[in-house]
Automatic annotation (TrEMBL), chain A:
Required for the biogenesis of c-type cytochromes. Possible subunit of a heme lyase. This is Cytochrome c-type biogenesis protein CcmF. Residues 315-640 form the Cytochrome c-type biogenesis protein CcmF C-terminal domain. It comes from Hoeflea marina. InterPro entries: CcmF_C, Cyt_c_assembly, Cyt_c_biogenesis, Cyt_c_biogenesis_CcmF. GO terms for cellular component: plasma membrane. It comes from the Bacteria. It is found in: Cell inner membrane.
Automatic annotation (TrEMBL), chain B:
This is Cytochrome c-type biogenesis protein CcmE. Belongs to the CcmE/CycJ family. It comes from Hoeflea marina. It holds the Pfam family CcmE. Keywords: Cell membrane, Cytochrome c-type biogenesis, Heme, Iron, Membrane, Metal-binding, Signal-anchor, Transmembrane, Transmembrane helix. One of its GO terms (molecular function) is metal ion binding. The gene is ccmE. One of its GO terms (biological process) is cytochrome complex assembly. SUPFAM superfamilies: Heme chaperone CcmE (SSF82093). The lineage of its organism: Bacteria, Pseudomonadati, Pseudomonadota, Alphaproteobacteria, Hyphomicrobiales. Gene3D superfamilies: Nucleic acid-binding proteins (2.40.50.140). Residues 29-157 are extracellular. Heme chaperone required for the biogenesis of c-type cytochromes. Transiently binds heme delivered by CcmC and transfers the heme to apo-cytochromes in a process facilitated by CcmF and CcmH.
Amino acid sequence: MITELGHFALILALAACIIQSTVPFVGARRRDTSMMAVGPVAAVTSFVLVLISFFALVHAYVVSDFSVINVVENSHSLKPLIYKISGVWGNHEGSMLLWITILVLFSALVATFGGNLPESLKANVLSVQAWVTTAFLLFVLLTSNPFLRASPAPLEGNDLNPVLQDIGLAIHPPLLYLGYVGFSISFSFAIAALIEGRIDAAWARWVRPWTLAAWSFLTAGIAMGSYWAYYELGWGGWWFWDPVENASFMPWLAGTALLHSALVMEKREALKIWTVLLAILTFSFSLLGTFLVRSGVLTSVHAFATDPARGVFILGILILFIGGALALFGFRAAALKSGGMFAPVSREGALVLNNLFLTTAAATVLVGTLYPLLLEATTGTKISVGAPFFNLTFGPLMVPLLIAAPFGPLLAWKRADLAGVAQRLYLAVGAALLVGLAVLYMHTGAPVLAALGIALGVFVIGGALTDLGGRIGIGRVSAAIAWSRFKGLPRAAFGTALAHAGLGITVIGVVAASVFSTELVTAMKPGDTAEAGGYAVRFEGMRDVNGPNYTSQAGEFSIRRGGVEVARLSSAKRFYPARRMPTTEAGIVTFGLSQLYISLGDPESNGGLVVRIWWKSWITCIWYGAILMMLGGVLSLSDRRLRVGAPNRARTPRRASTVEAGA
Amino acid sequence: MTRKQKRLSIIAAGAVFIVAAVALVTSALREQIVFFNSPTDVLAQTVTPGARVRLGGLVEEGSVIRGQDTTVTFKVTDTTNAVHVSYKGILPDLFREGQGVVTEGVFDQTTGEFIADSVLAKHDENYMPKEVADALKAQGVWKEGDATPGVTPQGSN
């Protein structure tokens, strides 16, 4: 009954979305206030309806209702409750429903907190958002309905893929979706602006908080996914340049660029056309990612060709929205007059550079992701594009970006003094050189590139500190004044510094983990000792541990340093009978910033056990840095200037570049 | 500089930048991609010496030998031809005789043995790496709907 209610609510939501797509849109063109007022009501209604539908599915999972096909295929009555719930989005149909839930959540947020938006802009934004929602609701209802019943109902379900039964994967998809579905708002704003033919600094001020929020979630989601892959797959890798990962990374790169260009637009009314284009591109990458992951094209080009309903549907949505948006952009962009002039050496110039590198980086990731698919579809030749390709293309693009990052916030708007800024960065440069030399000295024979990479990370962190120090006048004013200035700094300033420092920390982690980590594959018998990262790893023996829906064999290890036991670690192989599937549960202990990582292999004929022991130098920096970036985003978001719904301070009216809306 | 000159110089700089990026990508694509081969492909065409390739097929029944010092040797077969593979390290959870596998590595010039440095057998027991499934289909060994090497596309996950 509840399942049918959920299904019905989803159909009603479609009706509400169709109203939201049309009535406010027509209202905005006719300047009919009452028609425009339908937008927020419809948005909140469809949000409530989709939410009912979503919770109906959650309910079916929680009570293990095996008369619902989707539950049968992805759940099991013995599964712990948390994984019953996360199983809702651990499969195609459910995750599309989550996608839509987040889409309508953002509509409802705009409807509720968009009080200070001009009426027609708000109406158009809500309509555009509803166009996207309508398309995806149709997709779910027509091709991926999670509410279909099974008859006769089986007694037990097939269980969720065991590698997905993990707390990391319970949280990862919602965070990721909050991120890349969140960019739909920037997209809707961009389309609405193009429709109205009117865009100004105020537009950027409205768009930026939404972009920041989505970006922060996406950052957290990607970091979480990377950490999940690291500990759950048991391969010790934290990023595989897998198409599924790239699918979320491309919107992140474009979204980062958007964040920065919207800044220029807000402050200087420059880069308008570019910002609108970026907003379109960012969400296009999100749609492309959805297509790649959800159509089955990655699993097999062949499977895609034989069962094309879903793939072709999403491809249709993709072409409609990306093509439509770009066509609209082509027609209307020329009408958007650009504002402020700036010299190449200026904060604007630095941000343009940032955008150039980030979008090119996104493009290289795009090529590396799509090229194998296109090649196979057209010629049948199968190739794999892996880490070496991305290291060679993405890597070099990041270097100039990292060098430029500390300069950006120190440069003045309009026209800046590069030499002066370089002078202010002497401490950061000094620290970077010192650390680089220290790395070379301590790890004799360390690759020079690694020392440079770490120095670059330190330089970025140093740049962030220099920016903060300069703003509060450290060394120029008394400590008390500096402190009061520190307290008075806008939160956005801290946000920028924190996010840039986080980037530096991530870079250091990436370089250190890939260069200084050690790996040892060896056969061990109980009592044997191996050496990793200065610690002695002693294999104590095997132990059977059984969970609710799996059996497991765990290897127990004691970690000693200088003869003293400092930690114990257990690394296991699990077997899930429902899917007859084994998984590796790597054992990880953290020492400072580094980690000791052990995964088990197969028993050898002579009674030993193959064990893989990694020492992962400074690897946690990768995720700590990402967390700092996310916090930087959240901190900027809490800045009063950006707070959604905060009343605008009185401003001298600015000449907005306007073209006739009725064109 | 006038506004127009400034804009032109920015466009020129951007164009130079994009050309450089395109050059980077095309050269990387030429050198860093890895082609997929079935054992029959390997025998039919001479693989460029020293080139990295992906070799995929089924792990031949009874061919897995766990030797000294964590080295494992096995044969990868497409049921017509088979290639000797040696790998040092931990095999994936789902590595089993008779199951699909994709290995990546280099052919030893002297022995003709394939020295793999990575072995992939992903996802679940029904899943067949897509290259392997397609190659086996091309050999006519496996038809759609077969029970054992059935492709249950993980497309949903």
